Amino acid sequence: MAAMRTNRQSLNPALMHYKICSTLDSSPEVGSIGRAIEIGADLFKPSVVPLLVAAPQMRRYQVFGNLFASAGDDVYRLDHHPVMSRHPITPMNEAEVGKHVARQSDRLDVDCVSLETLTLRPNTYTSKPQENNSRISLLTLDCVDAASESAVGNLIWNERHENQYVVGSQGVEFALVRHWQEAGLIPVIEPPKSIGMAQRMVVVSGSVSPTTAEQITWSKANGFASIEFNAASACTGNEVLEREINRVIEIALSAISSNQDPLIHTAEGPDDPAVEAFKIAVSKSEHNMFSANQMIGEALGHILHEVLIRSGARRTVVSGGDTSGHATRQLGIFALTALAPTIPGASIFKAHADGPMDGLELALKGGQMGTYDYFGWVRSGGGLR
Which of 38, 82, 257, 283 is spaced 20 to 30 Å from 372 by Cα? Predict the structure, then answer.
């Protein structure tokens, strides 16, 4: 804790953003946002912690405290969402953002800055004075369109001196940039263009989302080699897992030598028999779902690293929010620089790493994100359509 405080003071950022998913994936046991809020509040001593999950440009909306997210052409309240309500690790059964996060901490006093309030363009947060120093005032921020996005950006920026610690999705940056542009603090610039077709590309996916399943179906008909990774092997011992990793690596390298781009995946949607086989394997093993998923993500990252090194491929996509975190750690990446846009929240980046992954062109996407031809879009170099 002391080291964190010293580093924060030496950097002296205007704002400290703790990044969370725009679909709020978390629980008291896994990825606890409530615990992260406690840690940040103890470090920064804010009077209020703002929580902005919504990102309208990604079709994530908060209305009077409740979170809504898109799936295909439709928008659903989070607890009715066809993907997030069935998430294998953190199924969402509560759409009210404050209530969901309050389950993850017994120190939070939650309120909401509503759309009605935002129409007045407030410059400061309103909060009740705390009689107990251990209590934390948490304000969830409504946001549904450009006007409300600008208003919450204005609010967060104006409060930066007193309330430096912010929790939220990439909607925080969307809101700040919109406010800065409207206030004339930064210019409006044209988005970067395509970086051009990849000579070869590798995709790994640990997602069981129907959206990713649709993307895999399109890819199989458009020059990608579909390669199944047996996720159940993660639960049957290191030797079995190692054999599966090596098997998939060799098939991927063979596909590349045949001028196909390997697409390595654990399942093609939630109804793939591989999903039930994995659940059964977990139940019969010493692992829980969280540790088993971590092993799968790390295995996919190891596969990706080896295939990239041995093939010379310099562009890749990792699909699945949890998979992206586990897999990219295997690549030794410590920073990303934007190269070309695709969908909001899943652009193509240049990776910075100590070692051979430095300069890798990389796109990371949540399982429920992206167009049906997303993998092809990245292969062709991105750029707005």
Answer: 257
